[in-house]
Amino acid sequence: MVVIRAYEVRDREIVLSVMQENIPAYFAQDEMEDLKYYLDFEIEQYFVLEAEGKIVACGGINLELEERRGVISWDIVLPSEQGKGYGRKLLEHRIAILKSMPDIDRITVRTSQLTYLFYQKNGFILNQIVKDYWAKDFDLYSMELSS
Question: Residue 56: helix, strand or coil by DSSP?
Fold first, then answer.
C-alpha cells in the first residue's frame, strides 16, 4: 500500500539517508547540507511517500506568494524504488495541492540535467539552463508546468 503523508521531524534521518543514496548519481555531496538546512529552517510543506510502511520518496512545496508561484522542491526517490511510479504520485499530489490554492497561478521546479526529463514527461516546460549551478557538473534546469 502507498501512503503520502506530511513529513514529521522523526522522518529526518530517513529522508537524509534517501538523499545520501542518491549522491553522486543525482545530487552533489554539498547539497546534503542544503537539504539539512531546508528541513530545519525553510520547510513549508514537505511530504514522504511510504510503500509497504517504508519511506521510499519525499518532496516538498514552497510558496512564492508575491509572484503567485508554487515551487516543487527537494524531490528524492530511493534509487532501488525509481521507475515504480512513486515520484509521479508524489509530484501529482503536490501539483493538486498547489492547483487548489487560489493565490497560485504558476508551478515551477528547479532541477538538473539528470532529472529534467522526468518533469518534462509530467508536463513541465524547460525555461532556462545554468551550467554548474548546483555544483560542478550539476546544471540548473528551470522549468514551469504548462497550463
Answer: strand
Beta bridge partners of 86: none
Count, in order, helices (H) and strands (E) of the chain: 4, 7
Please state which CATH number belongs to domain 2-109: 3.40.630.30
Asked if residues 119 and 143 have their Cβ atoms less than 8 Å apart, the reply is yes
CB atoms within 10 A of CB 101: 14
> 38: alpha, beta or left, given left = phi > 0 and alpha = psi -120 to 50?
alpha
CB atoms within 10 A of CB 103: 10
Confidence (pTM): 0.93
DSSP type of residue 86:
H
> Going residue by residue through the chain (147 aa), what tens digit of pLDDT does each one get?
999 999 999 999 999 999 999 999 999 999 999 999 999 999 999 999 999 999 999 999 999 999 999 999 999 999 999 999 999 999 999 999 999 999 999 999 999 999 999 999 999 999 999 999 888 899 999 999 987
